[in-house]
Design a protein that fits this description.
The structure holds two protein chains of two kinds. Chain A is an alpha/beta fold. In chain A, about 35% of the residues lie in helices and about 25% in strands. Chain B starts with 12 loop residues before the first helix and ends in a 9-residue tail after the last helix. By secondary structure, chain B is mainly alpha-helical. The chains are: A alpha/beta, B mainly alpha. Chains A and B meet through helix 2, strand 8, helix 3 and helix 5 of A and helix 9 and helix 10 of B.
Chain lengths: ~250, ~325
């Protein structure tokens, strides 16, 4: 069996005295789509942010494609990596935020080409060409020279997805990508994500879209109060869950 | 039975057929009276100054373009530019230090701001002018050893011009650091996270993502600081740095024409400050890219644009033309 794309073993995290993650075990295989669900405050977003080391973990181990995130192992010790090394590992991990976080002083195309040129060492011409292809894929070729403020929320989020894809990541993390969108704009973003999944991208998606999780997800993980309550096939976890807590949550959101 | 009520939210049919009504703007009588009063006062003041013999307009004319004045102007200009460059560069460094996780860096930066913002600029200028009385020579080497890389007499290093530059620049750094810090903190932390998640390092993130956005907040107060600096260079006349004000003082110390010489100085300072507004407006546009702001048009510009700022407009199309209209949905 090949190494899983994302592997979490006993991941712990606390903010001050508040323990947000109480030992998370999770494996995402290559090309799989893993959907994280749960009530707010359950730690699912925090866990997602640990995967690309935006949050430092306080215990356990987290690796992406067989490489530890944020640490290097020396015998029995885990040494924290320098900013430079962390930045290098983050290139392989794309992230899409709830609030888009596009760079407002750059056009859609400049948002996409910034990292490949400045970090990836691509030539400006190549990056632009690739950027236009990505914009085409998310259906926004004609918006290349618009600033984020001139785009709708759904368009901004699709640019943000294209921006993350421009670094050719091995895995894509989505942090509630449709939660800040008007209902009629959600569909376009989910369509892009559906196509991405069909193309074989490994994805970890924190979402409240039960329908999306059931249709696209290979695994569904239900989290509550910093632990994984139940995980498995979405058609089981999200339809006839074993745990009472999962059932209670689903009855509220459906 | 047929319901004759129109659906909610629509006008009854009878009202819709009325002809389009003319909108009559408010008549601003108070504004007219205030305008006439202000004009009268202005004409009176300018007239009394123009006809006042004590101003000695002939002396003003003689000295306005005198070589000595131009020498002073040159010094004032480079001093302003160099002190602002030093202030902004050092100020950015101090701002980053104050935002650093290291308590020592934070304390050093905070101490710097405390000292240089907490003592009068005039005191600092005189202090640097007389620094030779504190340290007779300057040595740069490794502390507590005899290794010395550089050694010189303080007086030969600290010429009045250098002392003036140091005093103004270090003082400015203290103020600029606070402006830059506020600018950096005004940028959404999500921007840094997005940049980091793309693999950008902290230094690159600061330079490419955070600072360009912080500039929008930084530029207006820094424009103010530049204008202030231009005028504050007049203070270095106390250590005879040969700026505009020093030279003006030299002249009136000899010919006793204090008022005309001060008019000459004022005309030049005003002219320079006016010119400074141009690059500031350009910078604000440059760093305002991607935002819908900056759409305010002063009544003055509307007046010159022929729209007549004093007359309320029936049609406000002109006012909204520079905001971004494309929603793109």
């Amino acid at each position: 069996m090949s190494t899983p794309m994302v592997r979490a073993e006993g991941v712990r995290k606390h903010f001050g005295r508040l323990e947000v993650l109480k030992g998370i075990d999770l494996t995402v295989e290559r090309g799989q789509v893993c959907c994280l669900l749960g009530p707010s405050g359950s730690g699912k977003s925090t866990f997602l942010r640990c995967i690309n080391h935006l949050e430092r973990i306080d215990g356990g181990r987290l690796s992406v494609d067989g490489e530890l995130v944020g640490h290097r192992r020396h015998g029995d010790r885990l040494h924290e990596l320098r900013e430079r090394e962390v930045a290098e590992r983050r290139r392989d991990i794309g992230m899409v935020f709830q609030r888009f976080n596009l760079f407002p002083h750059m056009t859609a195309l400049e948002n996409i080409t910034e990292a490949p040129v400045r970090v990836g060492g691509a030539s400006r011409a190549d990056a632009r060409e690739q950027g236009m292809v990505l914009l085409e894929e998310v259906g926004l070729r004609d918006r290349a020279h618009h600033y984020p403020a001139q785009l709708s929320g759904g368009q901004q989020q699709r640019v943000a997805i294209a921006r993350a894809l421009a670094m050719r990541p091995k895995v894509m993390l989505f942090d509630e990508p449709t939660s800040a969108l008007d209902p009629e704009l959600v569909g376009d973003v989910l369509d892009v994500m559906r196509r991405l999944a069909a193309d074989g991208m490994t994805m970890v998606v924190v979402t409240h879209e039960i329908g999306f999780a059931r249709e696209v997800g290979d695994t569904a993980v239900f989290m509550d109060e910093g632990v994984v309550v139940e995980a498995g096939d979405p058609s089981r976890v999200l339809v006839e869950p074993e745990q009472e807590r999962t059932r209670a949550f689903l009855s509220k959101v459906l | 039975m047929i319901d004759t009520k129109p659906p909610l939210g629509t006008l009854p049919d009878g009202d819709r057929s009325t002809p389009e009504l003319e909108v009559v703007p408010v008549r601003a009588y108070g504004r007219w009276i205030a305008t006439v009063l202000a004009l009268t006062a202005l004409v009176g003041l300018v007239g009394s100054l123009a006809r006042n013999d004590n101003v000695h307009w002939d002396v003003v004319g003689d000295y306005l373009f005198a070589p000595l004045i131009f020498d002073g102007l040159t010094t004032t200009l480079w001093l302003t530019a160099a002190a602002m460059a030093l202030g902004l560069g050092l100020g950015t460094l101090i701002a980053v230090m104050r935002l650093s996780a290291s308590p020592v860096l934070y304390a050093v930066a905070t101490g710097f701001v405390w000292v240089f913002r907490g003592t009068p600029l005039l005191v600092q200028i005189i202090f640097w002018g007389y620094a030779a009385a504190l340290y007779h020579s300057v040595q740069i080497g490794i502390p507590f050893t005899h290794v010395t890389f550089f050694q010189a007499e303080t007086n030969s290093l600290l010429t009045p011009a250098v002392a003036a530059l140091l005093a103004l620049g270090l003082n400015e750094a203290a103020y600029a650091s606070e402006i830059v810090r506020a600018g950096i903190q005004s940028v959404d932390p999500g921007q840094t996270e997005a940049a980091h998640s793309l693999g950008m390092r902290p230094a690159l993130t600061l330079r490419r993502i955070v600072l360009p956005q912080a500039m929008r907040v930084i530029i207006p107060p820094m424009g103010n600081e530049t204008i202030n600096m231009l005028k504050m260079t007049a203070l270095v006349s106390v250590i005879s740095a040969h700026d505009l004000m020093s030279n003006i003082q030299d002249v009136y110390a000899q010919n006793y024409q204090v008022i005309p010489m001060l008019v000459v100085a004022s005309i030049w300072y005003l002219a320079l400050v006016t010119v400074l507004g141009v690059p500031q407006a350009w910078l604000e546009r440059r760093y305002g890219r991607g935002t819908a702001r900056g759409g305010h048009v002063s009544p003055f510009r509307r007046l010159f644009a022929g729209a007549g700022g004093l007359f309320p407009q029936r049609n406000n199309k002109n006012d909204t033309s520079d905001t971004i209209e494309e929603g793109g949905r």
